[in-house]
């Protein structure tokens, strides 16, 4: 029962992490304009994401523009896109594999060993998915931080971390932790000892000894 509860907890955490990775990928707030220094504020907020850039005016009107050409984008942005999409696809595969190995499901009930292996394999896929998202968000955040502290970067073009990065970090951590719980939910096999053999009983004596 304890391993089943740990397995269910790990699956729920990994599934929530996968949902968070999707939300983070779709959000345009990967980085937002910094208004530190003598920067002239022409809009209330400027955001850039993996797929589009948005500007929210002081009137509350939001205007977004999707990136026109894929080939004109920076190679680092294309790599971040690829890692996030790969993380989402791996998470989807991990869901199907982990559900097959869940103890509460009736699939593969006749072979418990394979069922446990499927749950562990699903956990491994979730860990890889979380690591891919963690690498993508950390790499993107490192680029933002380096450009912010670069003295040659104009003040009016500096950006800070957006909310999508924090959601991505939290979601990838959930996916990795949930996948680890799925891997640890497989109970250890008990060592089997050979059955003890009983000693033969001595034949009952008749009470008379013959010489």
TrEMBL record:
Gene Ontology molecular-function annotations: structural molecule activity
UniProt-annotated location(s): Cell junction, Tight junction; Cell membrane
The organism's place on the tree of life at top rank: Eukaryota
Membrane topology reported for the UniProt record: Multi-pass membrane protein
Stored Pfam families: PMP22_Claudin
One cellular component (GO) term of this entry: bicellular tight junction
Keywords: Cell junction, Cell membrane, Membrane, Tight junction, Transmembrane, Transmembrane helix
Membrane-crossing segments per the record: 7-27, 79-99, 119-141, 161-184
InterPro entries xrefs: Claudin, Claudin1, Claudin_CS, PMP22/EMP/MP20/Claudin
PANTHER family named among the record's database cross-references: CLAUDIN (PTHR12002)
Family: Belongs to the claudin family.
Biological role stated in the UniProt entry: Claudins function as major constituents of the tight junction complexes that regulate the permeability of epithelia.
The protein's name: Claudin
Taxonomic source organism: Sylvia atricapilla
Gene coding for it: Cldn1
